[in-house]
Amino acid sequence: MKFTAAQIAGILEGEVDGDETVAVSKLAKIEEGTKGSLTFLANPKYTHYIYNTKASITIVNSDFTAENPITTTLIRVENAYEAFSKLLEYYNQVKMNKTGIEQPVFISESASYGETIYLGAFTYLGENVKIGANAKIYPNVYIGDNVTIGDNVVVFAGAKIYSETVIGNNCVINSGVIIGADGFGFTPNEKGEFSKVPQTGNVIIEDYVDIGAATTIDRATLGSTIIRKGVKLDNQIQIAHNVEIGKNTVIAAQTGIAGSSKIGENCMIGGQVGIAGHLTIGNKVRIQAQSGIGRNVKDGEALQGSPAIGYSDYNKSYVHFKNLPKIINRFNTFEKNNKNE
């Protein structure tokens, strides 16, 4: 896809300073710009690159003044960074504006879908699947029986959505995501062997949820695993059976949440956090990366840390760790009194 400076200026409501007919077909950093590429200058630290960049078009703030000759065509806008972000969004929309049904695909006779749908090659739609309008299902996606998917949903290549899953509107599901696989449910018998506990529930994902690549969300044993409206999940997260995540919570990569834990609204959870099962995490909780959560957490708490030592030793040490500030104060007072003597 090629765009001229005049077309880009129209999209961004900017003003062309240079050749309106020059065209670009790719994006680049200003220091790595080549002929046919578009870049932007927002940080003053990078200003010196504009005099040598080979990029055909550069987006700049409207008050930019060149102190040396430049060869790149400028598009002047009120805020170069915001304008470039807007352009990226527009570019993605154009790039992803696919419609129609590629071949081969398998669509069950009882499946249905809305207008302006895109189904990529080798997609599978099971019995009674319902997909809304303007959905984009990329190649090699599996959608099991009785799945419901809302409007404006994007499911990228290779995702697997198991039976009975419900997905709301305006969701993004990235490649390699698995939604609705069996939860980790086993019970020991008298011989010390483990028997499978049937997982008969489902997964419910509400509107405006983003799910990163290779994240897994298990179906409930009974009832539903629920991801509330506006949740944003990074790559490679494990969410176990019967977990509930409150609206507008964001979770970074490699976090693991064990079964039946409930996480509140507007929480921020860092990468590689481990949350034990059957816990309740309050609203607006902040958990730093690599923390281990083994207790209920109240609204608004900020937590960090997870020393991996023997369980019994840890419990004993934790009592002293909680009192460490008091112990230090007592020690400092004792030392000060001894010096005075």
Structure description:
The protein is α/β, with parallel strands linked by helices and 341 residues long. The chain folds into three domains: 3-95, Udp-n-acetylmuramoylalanyl-d-glutamate--2,6- Diaminopimelate Ligase, Chain: A, domain 1 (3-Layer(aba) Sandwich); 159-303, Hexapeptide repeat proteins (UDP N-Acetylglucosamine Acyltransferase, domain 1, 3 Solenoid); 312-340. It has four helices and 39 strands. The strands form six sheets. The chain has an eleven-stranded parallel beta sheet, with no helix packed on it. A ten-stranded parallel beta sheet has the order 9-12-15-18-21-26-29-32-35-38, with no helix packed on it. The protein is flat. The N and C termini lie far apart (83 Å).
Major pleated sheet: 11 strands, parallel
| CATH hierarchy: architecture of the largest domain | 3 Solenoid
Let me know the CATH homologous superfamily of the largest domain. Hexapeptide repeat proteins
Secondary-structure-derived class: alpha/beta
Q: Uncertain spans, ≥5 residues at pLDDT below 50?
A: none
Strand content: 25-35%
Q: DSSP helix count? A: 4
Strand order of the largest sheet: 8-11-14-17-20-25-28-31-34-37-39
Cα gyration radius (Å): 27 Å
- Any idea of the CATH topology of the largest domain? UDP N-Acetylglucosamine Acyltransferase, domain 1
CATH class of the largest domain: Mainly Beta
Count of domains:
3
Mean pLDDT over all positions: 93
Summarize the structure.
Catalyzes the N-acylation of UDP-3-O-acylglucosamine using 3-hydroxyacyl-ACP as the acyl donor. Is involved in the biosynthesis of lipid A, a phosphorylated glycolipid that anchors the lipopolysaccharide to the outer membrane of the cell. This protein is an alpha/beta fold and 341 residues long.
